[in-house]
Amino acid sequence: MLSTNIKEATKAEHQNLEKQVVLKLKAIRSNADYADLLKHFYAYFSHIEETIKPYITESILPDYAQRRNSSYIKADILELGGDITDLPYTTVPKIENAVEALGALYVLEGSIMGGSIIVKMLEKGGVTKGVSFFSGYGEATGMMWGNFVAVLNAQAKTEQDEEQAIVAANDTFKHFAYVFEKERVGTV
After folding, report:
1. How many CB atoms lie within 10 A of CB 174?
2. Around 131, how many Cα atoms within 13 Å sit in the side-chain half-sphere?
3. Of 121, 143, 166, 178, which residue is most buried, by most CB within 10 angstroms?
4. What mean pLDDT is reported for the chain?
């Protein structure tokens, strides 16, 4: 089943991205710091959403329009008093079909699963505004994740489909981590 295989096959890249995000989270001391973190998420999510948009249709993922997206991040940035200028540079993987798009979306949708932990980390640091994105779907988070996983599994009909989704997910993790790594080493 793809949902099991993709989780295992992307573990290293997922952990690398998580490490980058946690470093940034631990450095948050103000709403402005948090808005800066969100700018990284916004830059990447809005870029990858445009890349997968042609392939994620209502017939593939019927509730796609109801899913959380980069507009939530933008609203959080604005609520914190920030803006969406001077966004970090992003690159995204090449996506050429629905299975690859779902592999990329696996990364975006998967980020909701750790959102409640991020909200708690922020609260401990005194940041309580601008958390709509990381709040995910509230009590419906588990159901929404389950619906997505069911679609992901149904779309992967062959081993080649599974491999394409896994490569796309790994590449999505890598490109997202690069947004944070690039900043640390000061390159553009």
Report:
1. 18
2. 16
3. 166
4. 93
**pTM (whole model) above 0.90:** yes
Identify the DSSP state of 157.
-
CA gap 57, 6 in Å, rounded: 22
CA distance 107 to 35: 21
Nearest of 20, 39, 31, 17 to residue 125 by alpha carbon = 31
Contact 39, 84 (CB under 8 A): yes
CA angle 177, 68, 165 (to 5 degrees): 55
Per-position DSSP letters for 50-115, written without gaps between them = HHHTTT--TTT-TTGGGS--HHHHHHHHHHTT--S-SPPP-------SHHHHHHHHHHHHHTTTTH
Cβ-contact 134, 118 below 8 angstroms: yes
What mean pLDDT is predicted for residues 137-159? Answer: 94
pLDDT digits (tens, 9 = 90+) for 54-93: 999 999 999 999 999 999 999 999 999 999 999 999 999 9
- 188 pLDDT above the threshold of 80: no
